[in-house]
Specification:
This protein is of the alpha/beta class. The relative contact order is 0.09. Pfam families: DNA_processg_A, WHD_DprA. Belongs to the DprA/Smf family.
Length: 366
């Protein structure tokens, strides 16, 4: 542990001194210990009189080394801005957290960080939103992407759970301290993430309960850690739009899954698409955006499990999604015969039809 660690922690425990003030203090004093020990008068110039005096009162009661000792006894790992374990993606966002507190597998933050994808959405999803989330997560896990979300009810929880169901990796970013399970309905999910080699992280002091504004701050970390953010469902006032905005500001990709124009839950993703987000009409669109290499063993498995005519159709769909008449022309079969084959493949779960009427290989079978 660095001798600066207790001072990073102390600043992160001080309400009112966030990433922006902390950056100003580092620019002026050079390191956390020097800033922590600066005179109140010197702090006035950066924090202003009121905040400097509040900080002075705080540090008279705070014992930084005791806090660190307590956290270590609770198996809480501390990742501060000077730590080699601090995620490099967060270093370059406009307001990087002073510290991250972590429970679980610390190595997950450094295992292919360029393959982290966030999935966010409403707390009250429709059956369409639930199923779409599961399809996306299942495919992404098949290709070893790590799923990031905020462990809220709804889409977040489904994303985390589905990742674990498919043997994938997931990281939950909390809007409270990591000693607090919120919402309480996710107590089992919280434990399951830790038991399955995932991680739970937060920038807030581990004992901190939920407060207004913390979830907005949490959202910038969800997007900051990720290569891309996928928005499933949300209203026009949804917090998912805040996450998407952070993603755009941080230079991350934003994907959105379209929905019915009359559904309030479609307003967030449809608005994002209107404003330039990449539309997802099938889970494969995500892989295609990153030119993800198709797993040959998966292709072989599906092609060996169908008859000759089904194989011809699937080989066509492996290359690209297609309309029924295009498939019929390509494989030189009558449309009624193709319709029967497509129905059989849909029942088997190998293919699906997107909202444009195109058929595509589904559920990771490419």
């Amino acid at each position: 542990m660095s001798d600066q660690t207790p001072y990073y922690v102390a600043f992160s425990y001080m309400l009112g001194i966030g990433p922006v003030h902390f950056a100003q203090l580092m620019q002026r004093f050079g390191d956390p210990k020097s800033a922590y020990q600066a005179t109140t008068k010197d702090l006035y110039k950066i924090l202003g009189r009121n905040l400097a005096e509040k900080f002075d009162t705080f540090r008279k009661k705070c014992i930084p080394h005791s806090i660190v000792k307590y956290l270590l006894t609770k198996n809480v790992q501390i990742l501060h801005q000077g730590s080699s374990y601090y995620p490099k993606k967060l270093v370059h966002i406009p307001d990087p957290p002073i510290c991250l507190y972590l429970r679980g597998n610390i190595n997950i933050l450094h295992e292919h960080p360029d393959d982290f994808i966030a999935i966010v959405g409403t707390r009250k999803p429709s059956s369409y939103g639930k199923e779409t989330t599961r399809q996306c997560v299942k495919l992404l896990c098949e290709y070893d992407y790590t799923i990031i979300s905020g462990m809220a009810l709804g889409i977040d929880s489904i994303a985390h759970s589905c990742a674990l169901d498919n043997g994938g990796k997931t990281i939950a970013v909390l809007g409270c301290g990591i000693e607090v399970v919120y919402p309480h309905q996710n107590t089992h999910l919280f434990k399951r993430i830790l038991d399955c080699n995932g991680a739970v992280i937060s920038e807030f002091p581990p004992p901190m309960t939920t407060m207004k504004g913390l979830f907005v701050s949490r959202n910038r970390i969800v997007s900051g850690l990720s290569k891309a953010v996928i928005v499933v469902e949300g209203t026009e006032k949804s917090g998912t739009l805040i996450t998407a905005r952070y993603a755009a500001e941080q230079g991350r990709d934003v994907f959105a899954i379209p929905g019915e124009i009359n559904s309030p839950l479609s307003r967030a993703p449809n608005l994002l698409i209107k404003n330039g987000a990449t539309i997802i009409t099938s889970p494969q669109d995500i892989l295609e955006s990153y030119n993800t290499e198709i797993k040959s063993h998966v292709r072989k498995t599906i092609l060996n499990s169908v008859d000759a005519h089904e194989k011809m159709v699937l080989e066509q769909l492996i290359h690209e999604s297609s309309y029924i008449d295009t498939i019929a022309r390509t494989v030189n079969m009558p449309i009624p015969h193709i319709t029967s084959i497509l129905t059989s493949l849909e029942i088997k779960g190998f293919i699906a039809k997107n909202d444009k009427g195109e058929y595509y290989i589904t559920n990771g079978y490419t």
